[in-house]
Amino acid sequence: MKISNIEFPDKPLFLAPMEDVTDPAFRLLCKRFGADMVYTEFISADALIRSVKRTEQKLTIYDQERPVAIQLYGREADAMAEAARIAEEANPEFIDLNFGCPVKKVAGKGAGAGLLRDIPKMLEITSEVVKAVKLPVTVKTRLGWDEDNKVIVELAERLQDCGIAALAIHGRTRSQMYKGDADWTLIGDVKNNQRMHIPIIGNGDVTTAERAAECFDKYGVDAVMVGRASIGRPWIFAEMKNYFRTSEKHPVLTFEEQKEILKEHIIASVKWLDIDENTSLESVSNQHLKGIIHSRRHLAATPVFKGIPNFKETRIAMLRADNLNDLFQIIDSVLEPEIRI
């Protein structure tokens, strides 16, 4: 499968863009475990144009994580085009347009999935961004605004006519948010539409290796995108790739190895958010660190500690720890039980 001039292996797996999740520290881990494509966090076009420091930081990409897409969101064509030109200078492989984020602070202001209520503007933004940059432009969106407006089959054709290089579809409407089951039927309808010639990437509820394989086999998509199931579990990509090869489900890491990966991710987050070139990790190990707070979402979601008896108090302590020494002592103290609940 190819997107523009970038070639991907058979049954490629993509890491979905997620705000406060897909920073470089996490992307690099997912890439190591087999993610074939990664995306940045959501980048506000308006904030990027205003040179907001935190937003500019999101443009940071590393050669080890390529291919990578920088994802932009906004509600005005001129701002999105200008932001795309700025993002292009960071030299990603793709510029991705976020027409799928359902949260109120984005969609409620007419950006992200909010543009599913204004298809002409969505198409205008897409066309203007495609014209503004030399890089391939891709889009991520949803089935439609609500149950009565599932427009994705026709919309996919119109987005393709705007010149995009690939389309990722989350199998829910905006009104669903992240509730209910993702409906892959319409994703399959888009892929099987004879008029479509760009790659179609399916997204939504891909939480196991078996489900990933089923999505390829049943719906014919060109790639599968993994989102929330990867949080606290970057090795899920290796599990899926192993299943594709063997049709058998085997753990790719031991319990202790999984703990070490969690610790490695925390350290990478601390280096990303707390340490400059003049600071050592050892010198901040007892300090309150933003990187640890940032990592709590992964610690809360990880399946590593799921089902361990009497783990509640340890879990609370782990999520309250705010320095490396205390946090790592807690993680190291957890032993794998013979039987999980």
Task: Describe how the helices and strands are arranged.
Layout: E1 2-3, E2 6-7, E3 13-15, H1 24-32, E4 38-44, H2 45-49, H3 53-57, E5 68-73, H4 77-88, E6 94-99, H5 104-107, H6 119-132, E7 137-142, H7 152-161, E8 166-170, H8 185-191, E9 200-203, H9 209-219, E10 223-226, H10 236-246, H11 255-273, H12 290-301, H13 312-320, H14 324-333
Parallel strand pairs: 3-10, 4-5, 5-6, 6-7, 7-8, 8-9, 9-10
Antiparallel strand pairs: 1-2
CATH fold name of the largest domain: TIM Barrel
- Our measurement of the CA-to-CA distance between the termini, rounded to an integer number of angstroms, reads 42 Å
Number of helices: 14
Principal-axes shape call: globular
Strand and helix order: EEEHEHHEHEHHEHEHEHEHHHHH
CA radius of gyration is: 20 Å
Largest beta-sheet details: 8 strands, parallel
Query: What's the CATH class of the largest domain, please?
Result: Alpha Beta
Q: What average pLDDT do the residues reach?
A: 96
Runs in which pLDDT lies below 50 for 5 or more consecutive residues are none
State the domain count. 2
